[in-house]
Each structure stands twice: as structure tokens, then as C-alpha cells.
């Protein structure tokens, strides 16, 4: 099915259309200085193709939320966590919903982090959800910068990687990138180079004009035409719109942005004397705020002695919040066990540093009603190692001897020792190298073999391998032995 989107008219008044199916296969780049009409162009494209294809808009300024009139769901990113944003992105691919992700209210780093999580979740959707979708990214230079800025390098790389995946590898997943930027020079080249359709608006800087002319196949003299384009007019080229550069005057739209360009309005004609009276008039008695102190409108310099006295003044008495109800040792241990079980069951926690997981542990404990966990970071690290071995109550009497032996090893080896000890105590097969590697926080089986050799050199393990290659481990000081099983 061929669907052509009416974008406007050319210089002769003939309609200019865009082949939607071709656009989905070849992607689009829109460039123009501020005020050239980029957002108007994107709005025209979205309105005229609504109902024909799923649409997803990354909106840094919150201007496109008015597309809700066409059935788009507005998602205010500031109201959700990064994980929730990723979950929303996965669901919209499954249900083919058109969405406007408004990043208004977030700082630049927060916008980049949110967009990276959102685009990555869309890109990683399962194959059965690879439906065609237009993914419109306004102000793309924010999310795919050509050089590092004031944001953290980790955030910049994540955002750039997500944009690169969208433009370079998104076609096979049904994702058609439509990116708009004010400055081609600020946009990463590997992101811009993947677009096959171009709409170039008014541009004044030589470096941007040169890149735009190069993309349009124009020489340097012809590039001056880009500077002379009126507002709302674009030079178009690409398989989805035209095989030769042509000027397109973008047509009208039905919705409008929440913010608009400033318009000149007449200034008040009141005499200067009257204006002074209005500016310096006393507040009306019934509308004046009731202040708890005498207010002198005249500015004054506070003497240093008075300022020091104010700082040294004892704070006003406050009503202390009621202390949280005390918990018994059994209740505290139960909370520890539940929180550690939740952390260990999270597959992403395997290779996270202990310091990061300790913060997660403290937050979860407070949510469970334990105001301040008694564990410090070293104590948490030992409890986490035991939990990864499946032992959530290491203080229990049946584990006293095993824990005493484990504490003779470095803390990072405690989990591997206890994993083998638990299997030996219960007569289960010897844990494979992969399971021991997870408790040790590594993916290297070589490190696991060196670890077992070190523990055996401390006379804590005795390893036996039978003729069939199956391994069993004995803990001689405890008299426990695992059943034989494959090592890896």
C-alpha cells in the first residue's frame, strides 16, 4: 500500500508529497536555524500521517503534546523513573500506541538519560513487536552531540549509542528515524549520514551551509540559496520526496505548540508620571501579605555584628517527629533476609559494585520500616556474599561453624565458599563453575579455578575428580561432602 503525505507546495504551486513507505525505509533529516519552521514541518508530517503509522515523538520542549487530539498519549518524563520510562517504551511497541515523550522540566543530562533509556527499550523490543513506527526526535543535536559537553561522559555515550542504533540499525526493527536539528555541525556525523531524505531550512553559518549543500549535492555557489529561504520553506531531496532538490513551502497545521514565537504588541501609552505611580504604589491593605516581622522597603546593609548574631542565634524549637516503632532482632533479621533476597533475585545485580547495592539495600530497608540498618558496608558485603550462596540467615546456629571457616578467607571469596558449603551440607551436587562465578562477581571460569585452588591451598577444600570427569568437594573440618557433578 502506497501512502503519500501532503507536505505543501513547490514554487509553482504544485503539491509536494512524501511517500510514507519509502520514508520508513530511508529515514529523514530536517535542518534549519531557530525560527526556520522545523517544528511546523514535523507537526505537518505527524498530523497528515496520523492513523497511517505508529508515531513516537521525543519532545525536549513539550511542544508536541497537543497532538493528543490525534490520539497520541502524552508522557511527562519528569513524573517517572528511568526504569518506568523503559517499561513504557516496551509496552508502546507491543500495543502500537502513538506517544509523545515530553522531556520538559528535565535538565540536559536528565533529558539525554531519559531519551537513551526510552530509545534503547524500543530498539530491544522482541522480534514479534517490530511493527513500523516513525520515531521523531526534535533538537537531535542534544541527544547525538558531535563533541562532549557539560554532561557526564557515560550519559553522552548512552544517548549517542541509542541515537546511532535508531538511525543505523532501526530499519530492520521497523523504526524510521526522523531527526531535526538547528546545527548540522553539532550533530554527530554517523547519525546524520544514515538519513537518505533531507529537508534543509534557512541556515546562515558557513559550516552548516557547507554540510547542507554537501548532503543536497549542491556546489558552493548554489549553497547561498539556503541562506535566502523564507521561514517555512525547505529544500527537499530524497527518494521519499524528490529525486532532485526542490523548494517546498510547508502547508498549514491544525494543532499548535504550547509555546509560540514572540509577537510585537503595542506598549502602554500612560505618561511617565503615571507609570512611576503604578510601579511604586503602596500595596492595597486587603491584598498585602501578612508578614510576621516589620518590613522596610528600603534596602540597607546589614552590619557584620548583627549578621553574626543572627547566625549564632539558637534555632527555634521544633516538634520532633515521633520515633519509629522499635523492632525485635527477629524482625530485623527477617527484613534483612527479604531485602537481600530481592536484591539477589535481580539479574542486573550480579556485576554491580557492592557500594551501589548497599545504597539500594538501605533504601529498601527504610521502605520496610527499618529506619537505619545496623549493617555497615563491610557487614553488608559479607551478608550479600552469603545471600548469593543461598544463605539468607547466616547468624543461624547451623551455619556457625561454616561462617567461622568462611571468615578466614577474604570477603570476596566468602560467597563461593558458602555456596559449596551449602551444597555439601545438604548433599547436593557440586556447584558448577558458572554458579561459583556469579557469587564471585565474575564471568571468567579461569578465575573460578584459581579461586578453588587458593581455597584448597588453605586446607578448607579437598577436590576429587572421578574417572568420568565429575567433581566433588569435601570440607574436611566440617565433614561435609558434595555429590559428584560436572565442573562446568
TrEMBL record:
It holds the Pfam family DUF87. It comes from the Bacteria. Residues 10-70 form the Helicase HerA central domain. Coiled coil: none annotated. Signal peptide: none annotated. InterPro entries: ATPase_Atu1862_pred (IPR014588), HerA-like (IPR008571), HerA_central (IPR002789), P-loop_NTPase (IPR027417). This is Helicase HerA central domain-containing protein. It comes from Sphingomonas gellani.
Amino acid at each position: 500500500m502506497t501512502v503519500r503525505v501532503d507536505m505543501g507546495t513547490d514554487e509553482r504551486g504544485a503539491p509536494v508529497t512524501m511517500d510514507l513507505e519509502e520514508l520508513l525505509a530511508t529515514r529523514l533529516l530536517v535542518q534549519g536555524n531557530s525560527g526556520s519552521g522545523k517544528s511546523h514541518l514535523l507537526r505537518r508530517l505527524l498530523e497528515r500521517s496520523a492513523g497511517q503509522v505508529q508515531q513516537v515523538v521525543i519532545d525536549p520542549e513539550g511542544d508536541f503534546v497537543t497532538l493528543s487530539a490525534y490520539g497520541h498519549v502524552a508522557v511527562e518524563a519528569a513524573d517517572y523513573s528511568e526504569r518506568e520510562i523503559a517499561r513504557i517504551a516496551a509496552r508502546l511497541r507491543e500495543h502500537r500506541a502513538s506517544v509523545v515523550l515530553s522531556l520538559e522540566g528535565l535538565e540536559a543530562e536528565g533529558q539525554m538519560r531519559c531519551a537513551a533509556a526510552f530509545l534503547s527499550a524500543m530498539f530491544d523490543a522482541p522480534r514479534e513487536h517490530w511493527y513500523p513506527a516513525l520515531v521523531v526526535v526534535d533538537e537531535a543535536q542534544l541527544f547525538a552531540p558531535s563533541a562532549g559537553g557539560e554532561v557526564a561522559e557515560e550519559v553522552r555515550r548512552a544517548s549517542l549509542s541509542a541515537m546511532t542504533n535508531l538511525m543505523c540499525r532501526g530499519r530492520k526493527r521497523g523504526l524510521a528515524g526522523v531527526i531535526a536539528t538547528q546545527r548540522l555541525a553539532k550533530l554527530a556525523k554517523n547519525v546524520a549520514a544514515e538519513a537518505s531524505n533531507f529537508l534543509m531550512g534557512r541556515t546562515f553559518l558557513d559550516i552548516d551551509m557547507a554540510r547542507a549543500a554537501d548532503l543536497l549535492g549542491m556546489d558552493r555557489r548554489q549553497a547561498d540559496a539556503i541562506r535566502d529561504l523564507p521561514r517555512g520553506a525547505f529544500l527537499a531531496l530524497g527518494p521519499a520526496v524528490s529525486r532532485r532538490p526542490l523548494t517546498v513551502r510547508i502547508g498549514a497545521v491544525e494543532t499548535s505548540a504550547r509555546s509560540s514565537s514572540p509577537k510585537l504588541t503595542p506598549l502602554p501609552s500612560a505618561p511617565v508620571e503615571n507609570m512611576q505611580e503604578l510601579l511604586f504604589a503602596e500595596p492595597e491593605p486587603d491584598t498585602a501579605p501578612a508578614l510576621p516581622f516589620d518590613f522596610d522597603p528600603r534596602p540597607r546593609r546589614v552590619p557584620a555584628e548583627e549578621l553574626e548574631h543572627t547566625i549564632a542565634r539558637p534555632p527555634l524549637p521544633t516538634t520532633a517527629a515521633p520515633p519509629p516503632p522499635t523492632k525485635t532482632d527477629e524482625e530485623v533479621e527477617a527484613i534483612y533476609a527479604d531485602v537481600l533476597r530481592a536484591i539477589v533475585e535481580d539479574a542486573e545485580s550480579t556485576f554491580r559494585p557492592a557500594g551501589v547495592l548497599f545504597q539500594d539495600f538501605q533504601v529498601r530497608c527504610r521502605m520496610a520500616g527499618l529506619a537505619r540498618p545496623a549493617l555497615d558496608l563491610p557487614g553488608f558485603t559479607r551478608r550479600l556474599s552469603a545471600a548469593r550462596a543461598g544463605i539468607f540467615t547466616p547468624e543461624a546456629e547451623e551455619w556457625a561453624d561454616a561462617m567461622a571457616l568462611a571468615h578466614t578467607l577474604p570477603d570476596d571469596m566468602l560467597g563461593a565458599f558458602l555456596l559449596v558449603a551449602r551444597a555439601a551440607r545438604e548433599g547436593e551436587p557440586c556447584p558448577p563453575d558458572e554458579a561459583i562465578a556469579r557469587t564471585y562477581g565474575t564471568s571468567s571460569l579461569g578465575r573460578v579455578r584459581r579461586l578453588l585452588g587458593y581455597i584448597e591451598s588453605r586446607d578448607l577444600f579437598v577436590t576429587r575428580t572421578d574417572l568420568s570427569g565429575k567433581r566433588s568437594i569435601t570440607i574436611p573440618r566440617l565433614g561435609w561432602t558434595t555429590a559428584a557433578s560436572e565442573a562446568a
